[in-house]
Amino acid sequence: MAKDNSLKKIIAHSKEYGFIFQSSEIYDGLSAVYDYGQNGVELKKNIREYWWKAMVYLHENIVGLDAAIFMHPKTWEASGHVGAFNDPLIDNKDSKKRYRADILIEEYREKIQQKINKEVKKGKKRFKENFDETEFLATNPNVLRNQKKIDELTNRFQTALEDDNLDEIRQIIIDCEIACPVSGSKNWTDVRQFNLMFDTKLGSVTGDASKIYLRPETAQGIFVNYLNVQKTGRMKIPFGIAQTGKAFRNEIVARQFVFRMREFEQMEMQFFVRPGEEMKWYEYWKDFRLKWHKSLELGDNKYRFHKHDKLAHYANAAVDIEFDFPMGFKEVEGIHSRTDFDLSQHQKFSGKKLQYYDPELQKSYVPYVVETSIGLDRMFMTILSGAYKEEKITEKGKTTERIVLGIPAALAPVKVAVLPLTKKDGLPDVARKIMDKLKLHFNAQYEVKDSIGKRYRRQDAIGTPFCITIDHKTIEDNTVTLRHRDSMEQERVSISELLKIVTEKVNINNLLEKLI
Ligand code: ATP
After folding, report:
1. Can you tell me which atom of ligand 1 is nearest the CA of 251?
2. Strand 263-273 relative to strand 368-375: parallel, antiparallel, unpaired?
3. What's the gap in Å between 265 CA and the centre of ligand 1?
4. Which of 184, 192, 8 lies closest to 97 in space, CA to CA?
5. pTM for this model (two decimals)
6. Quick one: which atom of ligand 1 is closest to the CA of 249?
7. CA angle, corner 376, sides to 374 and 378, nearest 5?
8. Average pLDDT over residues 418-447
9. Those residues with Cβ within 8 angstroms of residue 33's Cβ, 6 or more apart along the chain or in another chain
10. For residue 427, which of 61, 157, 176, 403 sits 20 to 30 Å off, Cα-Cα?
């Protein structure tokens, strides 16, 4: 089975099948802004629903929230975003291309890591069942040399980040001889800090007093509502507040499709805990979130944890869940132990107490927070890249190719396609009746145009788990052909059983049950 999930193919496929379009395409598009088409909007809604149910419904002590995008500007002073929500940028003088300096260094380090991985692969091939990976990593001279390079680079980079030493970050780029990926030139400008927040004006007043920001993360809407929810919901610590919604960042380099956008959607949960118990919950949420990802069965080897080199100003522990995208392992979700930083800051800036009286301890405190933060669009890309397959298939003695999206059935945009074999002999009438019943339960599609083979291919390409074909036998005995997307097997089932069979397979509970 051939599998090709290069980024270019995924972008082209997303457009061709109505998943993702460039925003304002007729005006040549807007950089790093995207629109979701007829199939994309369904997949996105289903991912959001799976996240929501897993976080809010499966956890009795987590509730939801939908805070506004616009917030009082003081919010962002308190959170530290006005002063410190910056990325280090660097320009290449020859190509005039702009890069994030930290990402250039991380990519360079990843290249060295790839060399080590290659060496291990070679070793495995050579020594077969006698291969001992731990020993190999500890003794092979090429591995040791490259590992030393990685360690030295990591130390130096980490210190530079901690000290906010922009000159040193530039010097690392120079010393590592990192070249511009476009021009190959090593002619770099200085490194500068760039604030990622978009601002605008509230009402018709001009001047700084009316300046407000488009939120760069949804979390702050949760923090400022902490007391409202805790009081009105009579929540007891530990408890969580979950929210999904748009966030905006004026990213320096916005490439790689919906991986890095300027307008995107986040799904965040802030979990409020007793001070001192945050590490226990941090470990819990690391495990739970990894389980959530793996439940989608895109391949367990496609995930890894990556510890942050530099902790954000608010965190005492932070880890990313990375996915093996077509462009390599990259962050899809962050899990952060944020201490009491945010609530304390809002307490200070607002002058309002944001404390919790703990009846067991008989004292009040500002709760600590463990956050899980995932980008819905990045998650969407995870599923597309994990699910996209090109397969050679043999049907009736003929070998052809098909593109199939192996999206988990519960998340598929269309759950079932109802396909009368021909337009004649009363077949569409029967098909319509089936369609009318099924569409009450899930997103179903009725298609009569083109040969049945072509219609199957179209449904495979959007990841529809089931196709129902109504043929002449249906008129005689009330049975239809049920075709399964992944195996392409076809079975004859009675019309009266259809709803039950499909419901069982596409039910989101199939995924949720893996989490408890
Ligand atoms: P990166 O290092 O890739 O810029 P980040 O560490 O700044 O990401 P967080 O602030 O932790 O990201 O945001 C949480 C999640 O929001 C990320 O894991 C990612 O899935 C998503 N996200 C962040 N920025 C973007 C973006 N520009 N486009 C799409 N998703 C994003």
Report:
1. 27
2. antiparallel
3. 10
4. 184
5. 0.87
6. 27
7. 85
8. 96
9. 22, 23, 24, 261, 262, 263
10. 403
Ligand 1 centroid from CA 167, angstroms? 25
Task: Find where tokens 């990402």 sit.
Answer: 103
Give the residue whose CA is nearest to atom 22 of ligand 1: 375
338 by DSSP, 3-state: which?
strand
CA of 298 to the centre of ligand 1 (A): 21
The residue contributing the CA closest to ligand 1 atom 19 is 375
Ligand 1 and 375: CB distance under 6 A: yes
- Pairing mode of beta strands 479-484, 490-494: antiparallel
- Closest ligand 1 atom number to CA of residue 216: 10
First to last CA, the chain: 33
R_g (Cα) of the chain, nearest Å:
26
Does the Cβ of 123 fall within 6 Å of ligand 1? no
**Structure-token pair, residue 486:** 């992944």
pLDDT digits (tens, 9 = 90+) for 280-323: 999 999 999 999 999 999 999 999 999 887 787 778 999 999 99
Q: How confident is the model at residue 207 (pLDDT cuts 50, 70, 90)?
A: low
Q: How far apart are CA 469 and CA 452, in angstroms?
A: 8
pLDDT at position 310, please?
74
For 65, list phi and psi in degrees, rounded to 5. -155, 150
Q: Are 333 and 65 in contact (CB under 8 A)?
A: no
Ligand 1 pocket, 381 CB below 6 A?
Answer: no
State which of 331, 335, 342 you would mutate to test the pocket of ligand 1, scoring each by most atoms of that ligand within 8 A of its C-beta: 331
Ligand 1 centroid – CA 266 distance (Å): 8
Q: How far is CA 120 from the centre of its chain?
A: 29
Q: What is the CA(203)–ligand 1 centre distance, in A?
A: 30
pLDDT digits (tens, 9 = 90+) for 224-266: 999 999 999 999 999 999 999 999 999 987 778 999 999 999 9
| 367 prior amide bond cis, ω within 30 | no
DSSP 3-state of 368: strand
Is residue 143 over pLDDT 90?
yes
Ligand 1 centroid – CA 61 distance (Å) = 26
Q: Which residue has the tokens 């089975």?
A: 1
